[in-house]
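Researcher: I'm comparing several assemblies side by side, and this is the next one on my list. It has 227 residues spread over two chains. Same procedure as the others: predict the full complex and return the structure.
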Amino acid sequence: GQNIDQPTEMTATEGAIVQINCTYQTSGFNGLFWYQQHAGEAPTFLSYNVLDGLEEKGRFSSFLSRSKGYSYLLLKELQMKDSASYLCAVDTGGFKTIFGAGTRLFVKA
Amino acid sequence: GAVVSQHPSRVICKSGTSVKIECRSLDFQATTMFWYRQFPKQSLMLMATSNEGSKATYEQGVEKDKFLINHASLTLSTLTVTSAHPEDSSFYICSAPNRDRATNYGYTFGSGTRLTVV
């Protein structure tokens, strides 16, 4: 079957670093997305990893290990506006993307 | 960049009535559109894939007669929830594939429609 696991909730302090993990088991794999979604809004694109390794983009970085079926999103210098849900999603091919349930991140002062 | 306009953003309807949701690609042609449903604190669940000029492909467990999808042009796809019931209350969102690697590789999402059936 298709399975994407990520923690339900996380809490972190403003200015800190937080790592959101995602593990997946899917029948196909073209790449892995991370999206940010504020309540009641559409997801917004953060990153897309195809190859193993770390990709950095400003305060956000995303890591992928295809052999381990594992990815993480790293958020640095946390800001209050980073409080949102973070969705891990696997592109299984043919534009078939499977979303994880999302990790709700709470950033406290 | 690629934009998908989705309307309405919120709708409240009476049980038994039908509601139409539109998704329009504004500056690109979307031959394919994906329709998702998201219940509170849950993941985006793919309901169906609409293709311009042909029948939509529905995911297992999604009633095609209840969720009518029409993709009549290269820029417009519609989802009609027929005979809506309170359990259909959810956040419905569309997305279209795009190739804008710089900003939004993979998919452009509409802004979503919050449907409440009373």
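Model: For your comparison table: Chain A has no helices and eleven strands.
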